[in-house]
Amino acid sequence: MTKFQERVFSGVQPTGTLHLGNYLGAIKNFVELQNKYNCIYCVVDQHAITVEQNPVELRSNILEVLASFIAAGVDYKKQIIFQQSSVAAHSQLAWVFNCVSRIGWLNRMTQFKDKAGKNRENVSVGLMVYPNLMAADILAYLATHVPVGDDQKQHLELSRDIAQKFNNDFGVNYFPQPEPLIYGNATRVMSLRDGTKKMSKSDPSDFSRILLTDEDESIASKIKKAKSDSELIPESSKDLQDKPECLNLINILSACLNQSVDKTLQNYSGKEYSLLKKDLAESLIQIIKPMRTEIKNLLNNKDELDAILKDGTQKATNIANPIIEDVYKIVGFK
Ligand code: TRP
Which of 3, 205, 241, 298 is deepest in the core (most CB within 10 A)? Predict the structure, then answer.
């Protein structure tokens, strides 16, 4: 097997304002990965339209996610951030992959089954072939490493299958097998109202999530109202197994302080949750305030954001276009 140059690719869908779960679960890791890899981070707007979107909201969500990448510390000068639809290679490679991938493979995707439910005949074709586009995103840059959460692991495996089938079908060793990068200390942030559900932009309660654009008072009041417990904080995380909301608060604080859950429990055991919540609100405000300010600045300065985007598009295109050229030769278009 030839050695492929190491490169990270990941994508985030522009389907709403980013929340703490997106930050602690993914984007904070994107920032750490840039010390070790060349990274490409993409706002995957083409994925977003596999389900219905309001065009005006979509446009503003795209800019908000880009601004959030930058505000969180992605180094757009050294790395690449851009919008998927602005680089044609994604659609071009996706079409080739539509013809490599098998319907049976896509039918097995659990996310498709969940999202389509009983409505299979009526969902968009895009929703079904979405994993082929995701494979194209990654492989249009011959990316070798992909930071993904649990819910995307199956899609990443499909990307590996597509890469391998392409290589076999055409007798080449062109595409690498992209590997998942399991986040080091990523935190699964759960809803502040129900600790068994992931924090999500689709939860009807605003109090279930903290947005990266939330004001200080709003952060404080959401944490204050977060579900917890009237008992004292225990010594061991085992004692929190049936108290998911409490464990969630402790997990979030540990992530904010970059320390282990055990360490946090050591510091707080025997104390009341109200004290932990006070400290948690302070930590969160410290992290979110500068991001919120930067996001707002960028969104008020569209020229700067446009310039950054244009640069990202150019850099991404420069990598992807020669790869599309190669693929077109391999399949016989050229
Ligand atoms: N499907 C991913 C999600 O919903 C987003 C995504 C699109 C992605 N293309 C990607 C993630 C490529 C990693 C690599 O979260």
Answer: 298
| Ligand 1 pocket member 134 (CB < 6 A) | yes
Is 271 annotated as catalytic?
A: no
Question: How many domains, in total, are found in the chain?
Answer: 2
Task: Check whether residue 173 and residue 243 sit in a common domain.
Answer: no
- Kindly state whether residue 200 falls inside one of the protein's structural domains: no
Please tell me whether residues 225 and 175 are part of one structural domain: no
CB 146 within 8 A of CB 178: yes
Can you give the residue range of the structural domain that contains 257?
A: 206-296
Shared domain for 36 and 182, answered yes or no, is: yes
Tell me whether residue 115 is one of the annotated catalytic residues.
yes
How many whole angstroms separate alpha carbon 138 and alpha carbon 262? 37
Residues 41-84 pLDDT 10s: 999 999 999 999 999 999 999 999 999 999 999 999 999 999 99
289 is annotated as an active-site residue: no
Query: Nearest to residue 134, comparing CAs of 27, 25, 8, 11?
Result: 11
Residue 1 resides in a domain:
no
Q: How high is the mean pLDDT in each 10-residue block of the chain (334 residues)?
A: 86 93 92 95 98 96 96 97 98 98 97 92 96 98 93 95 98 97 76 95 94 98 96 92 94 94 95 97 98 97 95 98 98 98
